[in-house]
């Protein structure tokens, strides 16, 4: 049976639910402790079943199926490990290793509590580990498509792990364009310009743009491109994200066909000209270099950290990640070889523990005692899924070889 078990026990027989962590579009996440020899702490993701009205069960969501299919195949120190998958009362539960922190929580702690910059050595280690996980995913033809601070987990031992593969896709010879399956991907503030301009075919470069946005947020403690998202209409037409594109252009300047040869072929390209109307910032963009220098001044490093400033190499890496043309944007593999990570001084090289050398104590993720609906997860309806109730999905995890 999956995960080395042969019996068909329920979730609450395997795990003690400690409390509720968070909820999202597709489900809810709980913290749990193992029972009966299952040692340690775990995060259990309970997917909402698709349903019509209140009683008619229609099956398992596409996101749940996609995440199950991918996460059981992956094995890498910088990707969240999947322990097992359980189907019970028409609900899917994915059990993951538990991480005490995530990047969003770490950013908020510095913004609201310490009022100091994240140590440069911590940022370097976070980026290095994140890119290692991304190299592994991309080598195995997996595009994440939703990288953001909330989806990057960090253990108490300083290990960075990519989580939430609900929007991830295999990009090796897809049957249709990726746009056909998911018209909207990546949370708006981290969405690459080719996606904003309606590209029907895109590459793992969208993940590297998101890494650039995360890098900038770790430096400045706020999203670099904080736009307002225009929602789809009742006909599910994808609108041009004018405000988000404007936020990017205000810092990076207007993209040009000289800088990005395929720019004019983008479906939303005609909208670019109207961005400048009535907005003087478009004509006088900040420039990424000025933004970088200003934020390093504003977020002064704690005493003793100044010698470990991201410096010119940090700016160079950020510029290479926030490159308009996806074909020129750094790949994850090339990013790891960037001079930012190859310091001659051993003390400045990236560590596999992002907390190494730091005395900052981060609080653990907030766990609420409310909203625990795992005990009452049964839904009325028929077994239309074709899968038996109270069963464990029973194939062993076929692990992809570590990169």
TrEMBL record:
Protein name: Serine/threonine-protein kinase SSN3
Catalytic activity: L-threonyl-[protein] + ATP = O-phospho-L-threonyl-[protein] + ADP + H(+); [DNA-directed RNA polymerase] + ATP = phospho-[DNA-directed RNA polymerase] + ADP + H(+); L-seryl-[protein] + ATP = O-phospho-L-seryl-[protein] + ADP + H(+)
Reported cofactor(s): Mg(2+)
Cross-referenced InterPro entries: CDK, Kinase-like_dom_sf, Prot_kinase_dom, Ser/Thr_kinase_AS
Primary localization class, coarse: nucleus
Disordered: annotated span: 352-403
UniProt EC number: 2.7.11.22, 2.7.11.23
GO cellular component, one term: mediator complex
Localization: Nucleus
GO molecular function terms noted in the UniProt entry: ATP binding; cyclin-dependent protein serine/threonine kinase activity; metal ion binding; RNA polymerase II CTD heptapeptide repeat kinase activity
Catalytic class of the enzyme: transferase
PANTHER family for this protein: CELL DIVISION PROTEIN KINASE (PTHR24056), CYCLIN-DEPENDENT KINASE 8-RELATED (PTHR24056:SF495)
Biased composition (Basic and acidic residues): 363-374
Organism this protein belongs to: Lepidopterella palustris CBS 459.81
Domain of life: Eukaryota
Endpoints of the signal sequence: none
Record-linked Gene3D superfamilies: Phosphorylase Kinase, domain 1, Transferase(Phosphotransferase) domain 1
Keywords assigned: Activator, ATP-binding, Kinase, Magnesium, Metal-binding, Nucleotide-binding, Nucleus, Repressor, Serine/threonine-protein kinase, Transcription, Transcription regulation, Transferase
PROSITE patterns: PROTEIN_KINASE_DOM, PROTEIN_KINASE_ST
Pfam families listed in its UniProt record: Pkinase
């Amino acid at each position: 049976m999956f995960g080395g078990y042969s019996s068909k026990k329920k979730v609450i027989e395997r795990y003690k639910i400690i409390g509720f962590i968070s909820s999202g579009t597709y489900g809810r996440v709980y913290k749990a402790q193992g029972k009966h020899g299952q040692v340690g702490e775990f995060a259990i993701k309970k997917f909402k079943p698709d349903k019509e009205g209140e009683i008619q069960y229609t099956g398992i969501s596409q996101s749940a199926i996609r995440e199950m299919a991918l996460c059981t195949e992956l094995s890498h120190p910088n990707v969240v490990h999947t322990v097992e998958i359980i189907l019970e009362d028409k609900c899917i539960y994915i059990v993951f290793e538990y991480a005490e922190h995530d990047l969003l929580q770490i950013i908020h702690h510095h913004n609201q509590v310490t009022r100091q910059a994240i140590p440069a050595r911590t940022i370097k280690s976070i980026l290095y580990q994140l890119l290692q996980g991304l190299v592994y995913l991309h080598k195995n033809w997996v595009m994440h498509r939703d990288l953001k601070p909330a989806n990057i987990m960090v253990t108490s031992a300083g290990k960075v792990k990519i989580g939430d593969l609900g929007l991830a896709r295999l990009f090796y010879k897809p049957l249709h364009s990726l746009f056909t399956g998911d018209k909207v991907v990546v949370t708006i503030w981290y969405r690459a310009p080719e996606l904003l301009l309606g590209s029907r075919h895109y590459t793992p470069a969208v993940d590297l743009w998101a890494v650039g946005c995360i890098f900038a947020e770790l430096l400045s403690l706020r999203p670099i491109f904080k736009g307002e998202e225009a929602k789809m209409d009742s006909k599910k037409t994808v609108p041009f994200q004018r405000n988000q594109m404007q936020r990017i252009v205000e810092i990076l300047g207007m993209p040009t066909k000289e800088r990005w040869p395929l720019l004019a072929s983008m479906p939303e390209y005609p909208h670019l000209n109207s961005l400048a109307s009535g907005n003087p910032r478009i004509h006088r963009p900040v420039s990424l270099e000025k933004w970088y220098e200003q934020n390093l001044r504003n977020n002064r490093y704690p005493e003793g950290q100044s010698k470990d400033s991201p410096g010119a190499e940090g700016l160079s890496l950020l510029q290479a990640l926030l490159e308009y043309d996806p074909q020129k944007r750094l790949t994850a593999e090339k990013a790891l070889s960037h001079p930012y990570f190859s310091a001659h001084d051993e003390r400045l090289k990236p560590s596999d523990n992002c907390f190494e050398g730091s005395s900052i104590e981060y609080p653990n993720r907030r766990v609420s005692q409310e909203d625990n609906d795992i005990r009452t997860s049964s839904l009325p309806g028929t077994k239309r899924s074709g899968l038996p109730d109270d069963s464990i999905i029973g194939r062993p995890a076929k692990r992809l070889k570590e990169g």
